[in-house]
Amino acid sequence: MRQIGRQLGRHPSTISRELRRHTDAAGNYLPRTADLDARRQRARPKTPRLVANAPLRLLVQRKLNRCWSPEEIAGWLRKTYADEPSMHVCHETFYRALLLREPGGLHQRYAIKLRTGRRIRKTRWRTRTGQGSRIRNMTMIDQRPAEIETKLTAGHWEGDLIVGVGSVSAMVTLRERKTQYGMVINLPKDHTAASVNHAVIGAFATLPAHLKRSLTWDQGVEMSSHEALTAATGIPIYFAERASPWQRGANENFNGLLRQYFPKGTNLAQHSTAHVTRVVNEINHRPRKTLDYDTPARRLRQEHRAPATALG
């Protein structure tokens, strides 16, 4: 294949794909079939996959309506319909169908179901002004054990707040780095250090010891009583650098998912505990690309059983 690629001026992987597509069971290349396929693929205009395949289009629309991302949908389709190539679609096809004016099979109303709701991404290098941190005795993120970066061990969490209109109501958001499992505690009245500590202590109380190894937070004033939180839970707390949300990428991603259900500029106090629980449960049962399209809920259940399995 490398020799053929050199003679034709093509990459060896291109030759490999061509042979894989157009070779019979005996290993013989089928040039006539390959030529026919090439002519058919060059034909224009091509009918978009989502226009031609109505069952696929309806399935994709249902997942979009549940706030699944295009990558989650594409990965789930490949995994669920492994033996049906007609159900395999690149996630970019969904974006083009939603964000471009040309007809692609998806109604434009589903564009508002995308996580950002816009096509322009904010740069992470913007700077913010401030008076510096008011938190004492912080242990910074560069002092975290190296194992936290590898995501090979469960029990390392990232935390933050999402704040409602007028900065009155808020929600504590926690996400585990390895399993991507998330927890949310609603704070309808305030988000003082005492309220946040109480919420985090209650959330971690439901977990076994091996799933409570560390917590990473930003330098928000809600963590001004972090030493009391560590004393109550036994969990060491590490702080990210200012204006560096990518240092807590798992939690920032989780907050983005939550904002699809709890938009910015709304009163978070209006949501009942039962509703918040339903939303978090739905998010934890959505497939994740970083988990090979497995779900965070399933991965956390596996981690719950891990010590017992090891002892058995």
UniProtKB/TrEMBL annotation:
<comment type="similarity">
    <text>Belongs to the transposase IS30 family.</text>
</comment>
<dbReference type="InterPro" id="IPR001584">
    <property type="entry name" value="Integrase_cat-core"/>
</dbReference>
<dbReference type="GO" id="GO:0015074">
    <property type="term" value="P:DNA integration"/>
</dbReference>
<keyword id="KW-0233">DNA recombination</keyword>
<dbReference type="InterPro" id="IPR001598">
    <property type="entry name" value="Transposase_IS30_CS"/>
</dbReference>
<protein>
    <recommendedName>
        <fullName>Integrase catalytic domain-containing protein</fullName>
    </recommendedName>
</protein>
<dbReference type="GO" id="GO:0003677">
    <property type="term" value="F:DNA binding"/>
</dbReference>
<dbReference type="GO" id="GO:0004803">
    <property type="term" value="F:transposase activity"/>
</dbReference>
<dbReference type="GO" id="GO:0006313">
    <property type="term" value="P:DNA transposition"/>
</dbReference>
<dbReference type="InterPro" id="IPR051917">
    <property type="entry name" value="Transposase-Integrase"/>
</dbReference>
<dbReference type="InterPro" id="IPR036397">
    <property type="entry name" value="RNaseH_sf"/>
</dbReference>
<dbReference type="GO" id="GO:0005829">
    <property type="term" value="C:cytosol"/>
</dbReference>
<keyword id="KW-0815">Transposition</keyword>
<comment type="function">
    <text>Required for the transposition of the insertion element.</text>
</comment>
<dbReference type="InterPro" id="IPR025246">
    <property type="entry name" value="IS30-like_HTH"/>
</dbReference>
<dbReference type="Pfam" id="PF13936">
    <property type="entry name" value="HTH_38"/>
</dbReference>
<dbReference type="InterPro" id="IPR012337">
    <property type="entry name" value="RNaseH-like_sf"/>
</dbReference>
<keyword id="KW-0238">DNA-binding</keyword>
<dbReference type="InterPro" id="IPR053392">
    <property type="entry name" value="Transposase_IS30-like"/>
</dbReference>
<feature type="domain" description="Integrase catalytic">
    <location>
        <begin position="141"/>
        <end position="304"/>
    </location>
</feature>
